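A protein record in our archive is deliberately plain, so that people and models can read it alike. The tokens are whole numbers drawn from a learned vocabulary of local backbone shapes. For reference, a complete record is included directly beneath this paragraph.
>
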Amino acid sequence: MNKSEKLICLVLGLVLAVYIFSSMRDAKKARESAAEQVAAAQTAAPVTLPARPAEAKPVETAPKASVSVPNVPEKTVVLENGELKLVLSSWGAVVKNATLKEYARKRGAVSESNPALVFDYSSAPLGTLEGVAGLAPNAAYEVRTLTSNAVVFVNAAATRTYTLQPGYRVELEETFRTAPAGRTTLSLGSMAMGASKNDLLSVDSWAMDAKGGAVVHHDDDDSPLKSYLAGSSLGCSGGGNAAGLPASTQIAYPGTQKWVALKDRFFVTALVASSATNSGFEATVSRDTQAATYRPERLSARAVFENAGNSRTSTFYVGPKKQALLWDMGMKDVMEFGMWRWVCYPLVWVLNVFNDWIPSYGVAVILLTILVRLLFWPLTHKSTVGMKKMQEIQPLMKELQAKYKDNPKRLQQETWQLYKERKVNPMSSCLPMLVQIPVFIALFNVLRAAVELRYAGFLWIPDLSEPEGLFASWFPFGGLNILPILMAATMALQSALTPSTGDKSQQRMMMVVMPVMMLVMFYSFPSALSLYWTVSQILSIVQMWLIRRASEKAAVRPSVEVIDPPQTRQMRRHGKAE
């Protein structure tokens, strides 16, 4: 590559680095300050439900003295299917917690020593109803009907029926004795603030933009996905003096919504309101009031309804951020792939198809890498051949530079004429990198948030969704990450094999600068991303070797033809005929 080509490639690399670092910055800051807050189930022992309708006698638990509660005992009931377990309370007819039965809190299968992950809604119960005259948010309800997948809560003002559908859907039907006048809200629950960890459910600050991001929603008019963090005076990252700051702050977003979601890196609680009276949502961020410096603690969200009428139906989704499941509910934008979603959606689909064929997401990432390289193979081949041609015309370029050193305009004209005659494109070496940047950014977005990679091991890698972190107890920088080092080595090797048309010292500099820059970038990335890039570099080296080998064979072929030219072969044929 000449100087201009190297400069362009370096700029493209820096653009990629800036994009990724800006996406990771908030997550790193939040991860360093996030409190260790493990979701836990409520202490009240729930009822074990029969498989058929029955007259249930839920367990009664004594109310806590420190909390304002109804003057009747609380009754808790359980709704359960193969994927989800809900614990509901008769105080407010709400969901206290939800257990994702297929997702362990720690690495390994769900067991007694490694319980399943739990959405803890104790601070803001899911389904809390507010704004109905004469009906407190924690009003006592009677458990009227109970089956293994449905419960009916009844009191003098309202009837609330929860039905656990197959998978992760929960349907809520509400009927009011008197239609609520004015504004009512329905809670989505809350999550802890701070970047997500695999064993915790906390808001993923990677998704946060200048205005926020933990609460996402979609307008009814199909406008682009918007992201918000509740708070004008409170932000998503900690620091600064907390004196004078409110304990919590709220932001309202009016307008009919298709859905509202409260999400972290891998999991989401969402509300799809079928009622046309849905008129927006509110979000609230609360801080740690015991800390001298500001530290965000929890984020909650509520759907807002105006003049809701005598009845309404809402559907909650409490589960993993799986593209197929969210797509079925019309919430695919919960993934927040942004402008690259047209690349991200097929990548997720292909990744899962490969895993269905060979049950290993490590192998699936490798197969996905091979597929991407095959798609770009013709372009990369053309680029490498173009660089080879550029290398071959360097002697002619130097002659032109010497001949027209005092006439830059003529030199430029003659140079472009030479490119035209030899069919050389000076920009071809950067074209593959330019085209692959959207694919790489899409892969970055997919692999960092793919719940399928959570705790998915491969070879020595314990978790493809996190850096390797080997020997973390004594190795600095969070542990030893082998893949980024291998990736940097393969990049240096590829650079050494790439045909160069510039100064040798510049080539040596590029062999060092780019690999080191990528090593620093990738060292804290999910290992799945490092695996993709390492395999991609190895395949690129193989392709370069094949092209070089074919070029060497082509260079030998003319000397063979000179020994036995076509005319000689023709004379021999005539001689045999005579």
Notes: The CA atoms of residues 469 and 479 lie 4 Å apart. The radius of gyration is 31 Å. The mean pLDDT is 71.
